[in-house]
Every structure is written in structure tokens, then in C-alpha cells.
Specification:
Elements lengths: L1 H9 L8 H9 L4 E4 L6 H11 L3 E5 L3 H13 L3 E5 L5 H13 L3 E6 L7 H7 L4 E6 L19 H7 L5 E5 L4 H10 L7 E3 L7 E7 L3 H11 L3 E5 L3 H13 L4 E4 L5 H12 L5 E4 L12 E6 L6 H8 L9 E7 L1 H13 L4 H14 L11 E3 L2 H8 L3 H13 L3 E4 L7 E4 L3 H10 L4 H10 L8 E2 L2 H8 L3 H13 L3 E4 L6 E4 L17 H19 L5 H8 L12 H25 L5 H8 L5 H13 L4
Parallel strand pairs: 1-6, 1-7, 2-4, 2-5, 3-4, 5-6, 8-13, 9-11, 9-12, 10-11, 12-13
Antiparallel strand pairs: 14-19, 15-19, 16-17, 16-18
Helix pairs in contact: 2-3, 13-21, 14-16, 19-20, 23-25, 24-25
């Protein structure tokens, strides 16, 4: 059955290694942790068994973009799937929940972990026929993971509602400590891990100390003409570097989370279809993107963790053909990495004060504010509140980890439209509002399915067709929504700040040791691991990465910069020994005669060099 489903919906004849084992184990009702590297096909591990079971698969994912992408891909394959995330209005959410409760054809419901906390969602959830619980990015449930998110802890409570339903946890990066913690936090009935080796035989790692990074990047692109990704920390630098590459006739573009969704989608599509060779991006680029023929990945800035580096570098060579991952660094990068670490742990008093300032800025009274969604512009807030950007973001990060609030970066959500009025109601409306009849009919001609579903619309396109201004289109849609002719969910161009609890006095905010002190200790270890990876000159790069993830018995790759340097030293040593052996054979001759004879076998320059060393070492 599993092979039939794989062939019918994905067109594949065979599973990748471990996929079928994981799917069968889940189908038998077992709790399972699937530890597969980036590009290992994790989604098929739960999607195929879910289609083989009666009922709905509840998928918990922290990334809105990834949820949307997977839902769209499932729908393209003729599989009914839905996603609930921040930014949807109540009518859209009610429709999705109703579909998942009453329509047996619906097979997947994607939600963020924060959604699990709401009582209304839990009430609806208990009316669904849940057959499988899939937890994506499962490392987020571990406080020892590099991306711990407290709302993930709610999953254990959801399990109590469905005690017989198996859970499949999936992640691409987890240390042995995190692997154990995931299983404990998800209340596995029996520990079970399917783990594919993190080793990537086709991916070669290079770490280079380089003062002229741009010059090195240009030479690298020249020698490796395929598709590539350049990762940097700073949004502004993505554009600067892309323009620099364009100056040398390289088809480059930039990408970061601050761009609107339409622009991001366009840039991503042009890169996926090879119209763009090089994409210069922050770490916002890559999640859920499966381009197999990426020949190289370059980091111009040092990643914060080896987990992040492994995922980002791992986007190269998914077609199993040779690819390279290059990290370029200088002394300032090392200093910046250490400085950022210190700034990532602002004093607790500073965090509490920022919470107070935010609540006052948004005029949130004491004891109120739970589930309030607030527009959030970090640059604007920093100017108004006289805070440093890194100070604000890191403080919010700790408040997020305590479950006080959540940051949502669903930038520029596309507007949606759903008609409430039937044909008879519309005819009556036209008689009383003839000036709006043409506008309404144009909407109905332009978008199909408006009576049965929420449909994505584009206000700029409607404005062009009606010869109205965008503001006038938005005003008309809001007016029609107010008359209950339709429901208009307007796009939002800024990220949101979501309060998860009512406001309390900042003095009552409690930061447990495992939220602050212990996490700082763990973060220090991660920083040390990154620094060791960079500064190491003795151990194979691949071996170091594998050991970090618990694989301690791997062999040297033979190709990374450390292995190549070791090989070069070995060859030089063997060559020196061979030259020296020949020199000693003729040591009864003059130096000039020795050089003349031995140079017939080896380069004269090297013979002279070894002869001098031999004299210094007392062979003569």
C-alpha cells in the first residue's frame, strides 16, 4: 500500500533510505523520532502513512512559510490539506476547522505550536478523527536545542487527548542530548530513533581565513559556474553583495525576510528556474526549498551554531553530485561572533524593563492583553523607545521563550475574499446600489470559487482593471464587507507581536535557570564548538561535524581543506624522504655532483632544499 501511495501521489517507484522503515513503523502505531539530514525527505515519512490511515494527520510546524509551501504541494497532488496560522481571520479559521471535522477527505491540518494553547482549538480538535501527530522541527521542544520554543511543550498536553495516536517527530539536526530530550518531552511510550548518518560524501567543506572575501568569492564562482547560495547576516549586505556580483556580469539577486511575500516568491522562483545563478541571503532563505542542483554554498559570515551551519551548507548537492561548502572568515568575524554572544544574553533587569516599555507603548492595561495581535516594526520601535535593535530583539527572544509573547514574521500576507451573499441577495443589492454593480461583477469574473472559499486577491490588479486607485479598491471592499456582501481579509505589511498572556508587572516575570543561566551555558558550548570548527587545523571538517552530532567513528573525508593540507604535507614528507635517500647514496661525492645526479630524478630546487636540510640534520 505504501509503495502504491508513493507512486500515485509523488510518482516515485522507490523510497529513499529509511523512509519506508519509518513509515511502516508509524503505521503500526509506534512513536518514532526520525533524524534525517536536510534534504533527506522528512515530509514523506509522515505524509505517506497518513494517507494510508483513516483520519486526519495533525502537523505541528513553527514556520508559516514551510506550512504554506507543504499545503500547496499537497493540494497540487490532489490531497486535501489546510493550515492555520497567525493572520487568518476568524471566518477563515472556522471554515478550516469545519472542513477538518466534517469532511473525511481532508487528510492534513498544519498548525503552529502556539495554536495548541487556545481552548477553542482544543475543543474543535477533539471533534476531529486524528490518526497521526507529526511534529516538524522537533528539536524546538528541547531546552538544550539551538532553537528552543516553549509552545512546543504544549504538544505533550495534546497527546493526552489522543492517547492511542502515534507521534512522529522529525528533525534534521539534533545532538545526542537533544535526541533524548525530544523523546522525553513528547512522552514516547517507548524510545525509538531512526537516524540516517549525517555524512554527506558528495559535499566538501572548506574553511578559509580570508581578508579579501569578495575577491575570493569571485574566483570561486568563476571556478564553480553552477547555482549557488551566499549567506550573510545583514539584510543590507545581501543587496550590496548581489549588486557587486552583477557588476561582474553574474546573474545574482538578494533575499531576506524584510521583503514582501510577492517579491520573495518572485526571487525564489527565478533562482529555482535558473534565471538567477547566485542568491545572496540571510538565513531566511532555504527552509522548505528543495533545489537539487546547488553546486556551492558560501558563508561570508560565521553562523551562530554548527546546527545552523550544517543545515545551510547542506542545501548544496541534494542531487548527490559533488558540491562544496565554503566558509570565509577574518579576525573581525571572530570578535563579532563573541560580541554577539554577549549581546544575546542581556541582563534580566533589561529584559523586564523592555517588557514594561512595550506594554506601555501599546497601552496594554494590567491584567489584559492575552491573544492581542499588535503591529510590530522593530526599527520604528527602537527609534521611538531609544533602544538598540539587538537589545530589543534579544530581549523579545527571551520573553518569547518564557511564553509571554510571540513574534510572527508573516510579512505582507496576501488579501483574501469570500462572498457571503447568494445570487438573490446580490440582485437585491444591485437594485439599491447600482453604482457598485460593475465592481462586484468584475470581482466575480476575475476570481473563481468566491462563493465557496476564501480566495487570494491582488488589489493592484483590481485597481488596474477598474481604473481606480488601490486605496479606492480597498475602501470599496471594506464597505462591501460591512454590508455582509462579502468578507474581506486585508493584507498586512508588517510583522506582528502576539501577546500570549495578560500583562503582569515586570517584577513578576520569572526567568528560571533553565531559561537563562543554563541556556547561556549551553550557548557558550555551542559557540566554543563553532570556534573550534573554524580554528581547527588537525581534524577532518566532516569528522568534526559528525562527532558534534554523535557520530564518533567516521573516517576522514579526504577532500576538505584540512584533509588536503594533511595530504600535501604527507606527500612533501614522502618526497623529501625519497630525495634524501638518493642524496645519502651519493654522500661520498661533492655537493655539486650530488645535485647534478639527484636532479635527474627530482626538481633541482627541491634537491638543493633537501640537501641543505640534510646537512643541518647531521647527515653529512
Amino acid at each position: 500500500m505504501l509503495h502504491q501511495i508513493l507512486k500515485q501521489y509523488w510518482g516515485y517507484d522507490q523510497f529513499r533510505p529509511l523512509q519506508e522503515d519509518i513509515a511502516r513503523f508509524v503505521l503500526e502505531g509506534n512513536d518514532t523520532l526520525a533524524l534525517l539530514p536536510t534534504g533527506g525527505g522528512k515530509s514523506i515519512c509522515f505524509q505517506v502513512p497518513a494517507l494510508a490511515k483513516e483520519g486526519l494527520c495533525l502537523v505541528i510546524s513553527p514556520l508559516i512559510a514551510l506550512m504554506k509551501d507543504q499545503v500547496e504541494n499537497l493540494k497540487k497532488r490532489g490531497i486535501k490539506a489546510e493550515a492555520i496560522y497567525s493572520g487568518l481571520n476568524n471566518h477563515e479559521i472556522d471554515r478550516i476547522l469545519a472542513n477538518c471535522i466534517h469532511d473525511k477527505a481532508h487528510k492534513f491540518l498544519y498548525v503552529s505550536p502556539e495554536r495548541l494553547k487556545t481552548d477553542s482549538f482544543r475543543v474543535n480538535l477533539q471533534q476531529m478523527n486524528i490518526a497521526l501527530l507529526a511534529v516538524d522541527e522537533a528539536h524546538c521542544i528541547s531546552q538544550w536545542g539551538y532553537d528552543f520554543r516553549p509552545p512546543y511543550l504544549e504538544i505533550a498536553e495534546i497527546r493526552k487527548l489522543f492517547p492511542k495516536v502515534p507521534v512522529l517527530a522529525l528533525t534534521a539536526t539534533a545532538t545526542p542530548e537533544v535526541v533524548n530530550d525530544i523523546q522525553e518531552k513528547l512522552h514516547f511510550r517507548r524510545k525509538n530513533v531512526f537516524q540516517k548518518s549525517f555524512k554527506r560524501d558528495n559535499l566538501t567543506y572548506f574553511v578559509m581565513h580570508e581578508e579579501n572575501k569578495m575577491g575570493r568569492l569571485l574566483r570561486l564562482i568563476e571556478k564553480n559556474p553552477g547555482t549557488g547560495i551566499v549567506y550573510v547576516r545583514n539584510r543590507r549586505r545581501t543587496k550590496e553583495i548581489a549588486e557587486y556580483l552583477q557588476h561582474f556580469n553574474i546573474a545574482a539577486d538578494f533575499y531576506h525576510a524584510g521583503l514582501d511575500s510577492a517579491t520573495r516568491d518572485k526571487k525564489q522562483l527565478e533562482w529555482m528556474t535558473d534565471k538567477t545563478q547566485v542568491i545572496v541571503s540571510t538565513n531566511a532563505f532555504g527552509m522548505g526549498i528543495d533545489k537539487p542542483d546547488v553546486r556551492w554554498v558560501v558563508h561570508l559570515d560565521i553562523p551562530d551554531t554548527l546546527e545552523a551551519y550544517f543545515q545551510e551548507a547542506g542545501r548544496g548537492g541534494r542531487d548527490l553530485k559533488p558540491s562544496i561548502a565554503v566558509m570565509l572568515y577574518d579576525n573581525n568575524d571572530i570578535k563579532e561572533l563573541k560580541t554577539n554572544f554577549q549581546l544575546s544574553f542581556p541582563p534580566i533587569d533589561t529584559i523586564k524593563n523592555i517588557y514594561k516599555i512595550l506594554c506601555e507603548h501599546y497601552q496594554i492595561p494590567m491584567g489584559e492583553g492575552e491573544n492581542r495581535i499588535l503591529p510590530f516594526d522593530p526599527d520604528e520601535l527602537c527609534k521611538k523607545l531609544k533602544l538598540k535593535p539587538i537589545e530589543l530583539i534579544n530581549a523579545l527572544s527571551f520573553l518569547e521563550k518564557t511564553g509571554v509573547l510571540m513574534l510572527s514574521e508573516d510579512v505582507k500576507k496576501q488579501s483574501t475574499l469570500h462572498f457571503l451573499a447568494d445570487e438573490e441577495t446580490l440582485q437585491n443589492f444591485y437594485q439599491k446600489n447600482s453604482d457598485k454593480e460593475d465592481f462586484v461583477k468584475l470581482l466575480l469574473r476575475s476570481y473563481g470559487g468566491l462563493f465557496s472559499n476564501y480566495v487570494k486577491i491582488n488589489e493592484e490588479e483590481i485597481a488596474r482593471r477598474t481604473e481606480l486607485k488601490v486605496e479606492e479598491v480597498e475602501h470599496l471592499l471594506i464597505e462591501l464587507s460591512g454590508k455582509n456582501i462579502l468578507r474581506y481579509s486585508q493584507r498586512n505589511a508588517k510583522p506582528h507581536l502576539i501577546l500570549l498572556q495578560n500583562r503582569v508587572s515586570e517584577n513578576y516575570l520569572y526567568f528560571k535557570d533553565d531559561i537563562y543561566k543554563k541556556r547561556k551555558e549551553v550557548a557558550q558550548k555551542r559557540l566554543d564548538s563553532v570556534l573550534h570548527f573554524i580554528e581547527n587545523s588537525q581534524t577532518c571538517r566532516s569528522q568534526l561535524l559528525l562527532a558534534y552530532f554523535g557520530e564518533t567513528k567516521s573516517e576522514p573525508c579526504g577532500n576538505c581543506d584540512v584533509c588536503r593540507h594533511a595530504h600535501s604535507l604527507k606527500m612533501k614528507r614522502l618526497e623529501k624522504e625519497s630525495i634524501q635517500k638518493e642524496i645519502i647514496k651519493h654522500k661520498h661525492l661533492t655537493h655539486k655532483e650530488i645535485i647534478q645526479i639527484v636532479s635527474e630524478l627530482f626538481p633541482e630546487k627541491k634537491v638543493i632544499e633537501v640537501l641543505r636540510e640534510s646537512i643541518d640534520e647531521g647527515f653529512f
